[in-house]
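User: Small ask, check this?
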Amino acid sequence: MYAFLKGTVANIGEDTVTIDVGGVGYEVYCTTGAMGRLMEGKEAMVYTHLNVKEDEMTLFGFLSADEKAMFRRLITVSGVGPKMALGVLSVLSPADAALAIATGDDAAFSRVSGIGKKTAQRIILDLKGKVDPAKLGVTAAAAATTDAGAVSEAVAVLMAMGFDASDASAAVALIKAEGGTSEQMAMRALRALDRK
């Protein structure tokens, strides 16, 4: 309904900003990053998402179209409401969130208050393949670096379990294209080793 609001920042509260648009004040929930960059008395434009419930309508605001798009992706995940999605974007940039989804880095989402390991894994599972890190400026090198770290950690886990380095490396190499965290890779590689 409202794609964006452009007006004067009338007030900055604890977690909302009031934007005066032609004499009408719109109260908008924003990320902590947005709250820190907006200034009272200055003109601002925020991209908005209107969340409608039975008994209330709430506006959420973002400083970029990418933030808004990631927010809308996050709220499609079961158990992730608008406030939790806003919390994610207060900790992770859209590019960081996309990279965490693409590489299966549930620890990145677990840094957000109120998100445990199960919710983090559900976000990754539900959104894998639906967000493109490259469109958000994440380079292949950055993704490869994250993957390389997870691969080496998975090999280390298998070696700690008693497998020799060559077997561990070969098993992880077989499954690394599937991505995921080091723990997920180690589990899949372990199953591959057990089938030998």
Observations:
- The mean pLDDT is 83.
